[in-house]
Amino acid sequence: MKTSQTRDLSETRGLVGDLFPELPAGEAWERYRLTDAQLAFFEENGFLSGVKILDDDQVDALRLELEQLMDPGHPGHHLFYEFHSNESSDPDTVLFHSLGHWRITPGFHDVLWNPRFVVPASQLLGGKAVRFWHDQLFCKPARHGGVVAWHQDYSYWTRTTPLQHLTCWVGLDDATADNGCLQYIPGSHKWDLLEKIELAGSMDSLRDLLNPGQIAQYENRVAAEMPAGYATFHHPKMVHGSYENRSDKPRRAFVLNVFADGTRSNSDEVLLNGVPPIKKGEPMGGRFFPLLFKPPAAHGE
After folding, report:
1. CB-based contacts of 234: which residues, under 8 Å, 6+ apart?
2. How far apart are CA 244 and CA 28, in angstroms?
3. pLDDT, one tens digit for every residue, the chain (301 residues)
4. Cis (ω within 30 of 0) for the bond into 162?
5. How far is CA 73 from each of CA 23, 61, 272, rounded to the nearest angstrom?
6. 138, 199 in Cβ contact below 8 A?
7. What is the C-alpha to C-alpha distance for residues 272 and 279, in angstroms, rounded to an integer?
8. Alpha carbon distance 116, 51 (integer Å)
9. I need a surface site. Which of 11, 83, 95, 108 has the fewest CB within 10 A?
10. Domain 47-70+80-270+277-299 -> CATH class
11. Cα first-last separation, the chain
């Protein structure tokens, strides 16, 4: 008999456990909405860090699930869209990276509907309803964790349109410059879309694509240092990356990628491994791209 951890949780919309509260949209909005100052900072800089997403007990629960998921022998392994025990080509610099874990364990499934996440996400998408795109895990072991090269997320996502996407990176460990926290080039979300590069390749390969003005901005990068359980949100064209883990502790994180409701497929090909294709021009939706949140105005509140 299969357990709840081996069945495909994408078949269930909404919470399957009690790790996160289920709140009416209006109450969630009042509790967790961002301030006008935070929204203005995001608009100007392309990112917003230091937003608390998880309590300590939620961090602990997700760490335990992560430890189980990193085992290639996990009974739900076939549900991953991608699974890389080490995406780096250098065996001495390890970068664990996977997609699709929301389908496998209850905590990572339910965090999609966490009101502390969906309310800020809706605001940063201009007050629109939030629909799920896909999730990611990024783990760097102590002392030899690899890099995630500078890049723009939307350069990998042009198979969906229009550009109305958002990324939320959440640390399961304290994130510091020493252990490879996320870093940003403020204002780079206003740049044109650049070519996609190899994520686990050379840290600075994107630099070769920049003009002199962009290179000047490139030197003004900032580190998004935060305690475990806190998130940083960024624009889909925001240039970001993370350096190696030089510390004596692991640096574990998960990413939630979303877009505004109404986003459409821009390809007739498969969008995620194992997910049926959505015809080009058709709205993104259905079992694998569920609606996560409608702001109160959309409920008539």
Report:
1. 46, 47, 48, 153, 166, 167, 169, 184, 189, 240
2. 37
3. 234 447 999 999 999 999 999 999 999 999 999 999 999 999 999 999 999 999 999 999 999 999 999 999 999 999 999 998 876 667 666 688 999 999 999 999 999 999 999 999 999 999 999 999 999 999 988 887 778 889 999 999 999 999 999 999 999 999 999 999 999 999 999 999 999 888 767 888 888 889 999 999 988 899 999 999 999 999 999 999 998 899 999 999 999 999 999 999 999 999 999 999 999 999 999 999 999 999 997 554 4
4. yes
5. 36, 20, 22
6. no
7. 13
8. 9
9. 11
10. mainly beta
11. 44
Return the amino acid letter for 65.
E
Closest to 179 (Cα-Cα) out of 191, 171, 170, 187: 171
Q: Which phi and psi angles does 90 have, rounded to 5°? A: -100, 115
Q: Check if the beta carbon of residue 67 is closer than 8 Å to that of residue 107.
A: no
Residue 144's pLDDT is 75
